[in-house]
Amino acid sequence: MAAICRPGVVAYLTGGGPVNPAGPLATGGPAPNGASSAALPYSISVGGQPATQYYLGLTPGFVGLYQANFGSALSPKVMASPPGIRLAYRQLLGRVAAIPGVRSAAITSLVPLGVEDVEIPFWPGAGPQPAQDRTTSAMFSIVTPDYPGAMHIPLLRGRFFTDQDNLASPPVVAIDEVLARHVFGDRDLGVATLGRRSNGRDVID
């Protein structure tokens, strides 16, 4: 099952009230694919400013779980420079992490459980990009350092991103177990993959 996909931010919550159609709530079963929108008026604000509302209703495939899809653009002044954008996102993460009850906070370029994905061609080793028939593709997303904590993803070996991974440091990627075995042929994940390179970038997994 997949979450309702709309642009912007997705927040998951409970206690969203009646929906239309009311079937999933009435039967106590998981919500089907398709929208079951909130039946009562609602509003969403970010930092005291009204947000663009796309959807509030049940999340397909889950029992009693709601999701809110909304958009909140950064101010034109902040968007004027890449450093300003990065600072704004760091400040946003800090404010979210400081909310009582929040255990971890992260930003990702792709909505978890969504139907969309982004693929990038890659090749093992350094050097220029080879011919297209000698490359393969993998799904990827851009995430902040605490993403594994927010998603409860275990780290099998090595390290994940830190705040020291930035524009001034060598580019790195983190890969999952499936890709490690497929590309590097690791039979024992205890054997370090650090130092290997893909697309000319250090691999951390």
How would you explain this protein's 3D organization?
By secondary structure, this protein is an alpha+beta fold. The chain folds into three domains: 73 residues, no CATH class; 30 residues, no CATH class; 86 residues, no CATH class. It is 17% helix and 21% strand. The protein is built from four helices and twelve strands. The chain is globular, with a radius of gyration of 20 Å. The C terminus is likely disordered.
Quick structural overview:
The protein has 205 residues and is of the alpha+beta class. 17% of the residues lie in helices and 21% in strands.
Q: What attributes does this structure have?
A:
alpha+beta; disordered C terminus; three-stranded antiparallel sheet; 205 residues; 4 helices
Provide mean pLDDT, rounded.
Answer: 76
Structural class: alpha+beta
Radius of gyration: 20 Å
Count of individual helical segments: 4
The proportion of residues forming helix, as a percent range, comes to: 10-25%
Q: What strand line-up does the widest sheet have?
A: 1-7-6
Q: Which geometry do the CA atoms define?
A: globular
